[in-house]
Amino acid sequence: MAPLQVHFQVDTVDLNKLKDDEKDLQHQKLATIAQCKNEIYQQLERINTSFSCTCTPSKVASLSDYTSSEGTKDDEGQSFFAGGSEHSGQLISGPPRKKKDLAKDVFDAAKKQGAVPVEDMEKLRENDRKFTGTGFRLGDTEGPSDYVPGIRVTIGKEKVTKKLVFWRNGFTVDDGPLRTGQTPQDRQFLESVSKGCITPNLIDASVPPVAASSSTGTSSMVVVDHTKPVTSVQIRLADGQRLVGKFNHTHTVADIRQFITDSHPEMKNKNFVLLTTFPNRTLSEVSLSLAEANLLNAVVVQRFT
After folding, report:
1. Is 256 helix (H, G, I), strand (E, B) or coil?
2. At 246, which CATH number?
3. 280 versus 1: which is more confidently predicted?
4. How far separated are the first and last CA of the chain, in Å rounded?
5. Which of 51, 93, 50 minimizes the C-alpha distance to 75?
6. What are the angstrom distances between the C-alpha of 90 and each of 5, 44, 76, 79, 191?
């Protein structure tokens, strides 16, 4: 892009034809014009040396009810032109527009429906609300916001707490996959959060019913019932890889073995055992539930035999 330029035009005046007082006034005008020219040239020099004209598209994902980009950057301020004549003027940039905040919009709407801050959760333990609790703090980096332990689903007399995390390019529920917010299921889920009404079918629609995703991208056939207590088990494979599986407390050691072989089919024909880390013990009774085997939120090590 060519540097910005400003051209000045001053009409020629024959000073010999002017009276003394008119000459003094004309000299003052010329001095003022010269001073203005110097100041404008200095400003143009700063602009031409520091201004970058590279434009990048907005990275903010859009949702029909919460965001609308209209092809402009979120932080771009409106510009105004303050003109003097046809040959000169000044471009003035207004303050940047406030960035759209999807998470804040969702939770502000939820508060209007009766949601309460996280610190008030304990006061509502006996309350049978379908939705309680909001609390989040967002950053400006690619990292996640602080998680929000605030989606409580009433299923009979049991309440299930879900962890909703807003990322820069989407959101996740518990340890589920990243949701972009662009699918009808995702939009319906976020709209339901904002209305304070979450049902199990909406959670299941937003979070596919798989135990976990492996490092190879293969999903396990071990199905998790999200209406029952869920735990995570970290598995250190013999080849150095790691898996994190989600299981119900009633799943067994055999289900962990199945999760490993489903995620890594090449291990189906290999003999291996599972061990705990500390204290070290071999998990030989594969029929034990994870609760019985003390494997809730535990680390399990695979060893070839």
Report:
1. helix
2. 3.10.20.90
3. 280
4. 67
5. 93
6. 12, 10, 18, 10, 45
Highest mean pLDDT among 2-16, 89-103, 148-162, 185-199: 185-199
Return the H-helix or E-strand segment holding 243.
Answer: strand 242-248
- Same-domain status, 182 and 250: no
Query: 29-77: per-residue pLDDT in tens?
Result: 777 777 777 777 777 666 655 544 444 444 444 444 444 444 445 455 5
Number of residues that this document lists for the chain: 305
Spatial separation of the C-alpha atoms in residues 140 and 168, rounded to whole Å? 8
CB 113 within 8 A of CB 131: yes
Give this prediction's pTM.
0.33
What is d(CA 56, CA 74) in angstroms, rounded to the nearest whole number? 11
Give the pLDDT mean for 246-262: 93
Q: Is the same domain home to 242 and 181?
A: no
Residue 172's domain spans which residues?
102-206
CB distance 206 to 179 below 8 Å: yes
152 contacts 124 by C-beta, under 8 angstroms:
no
Structure tokens that stand for 161 in this block: 């707490």
Looking at the structure, do residues 115 and 200 belong to the same domain, yes or no? yes
**Cβ within 8 Å of residue 58, ≥6 positions away:** 69, 72, 73, 74
Same domain for 116 and 175? yes
Tell whether 60 is covered by a domain.
no
Last residue within a domain, chosen from 171, 206, 241: 206
50 within a domain of the structure (yes/no): no
How many domains is the chain partitioned into structurally?
2
Q: How far apart are CA 146 and CA 51, in angstroms?
A: 35
Summarize pLDDT for 69-107 with one digit per residue, the tens.
444 454 555 555 555 555 555 555 555 555 556 667 777
Residue 138 belongs to some domain of the structure: yes
Q: Is residue 53 part of a domain?
A: no
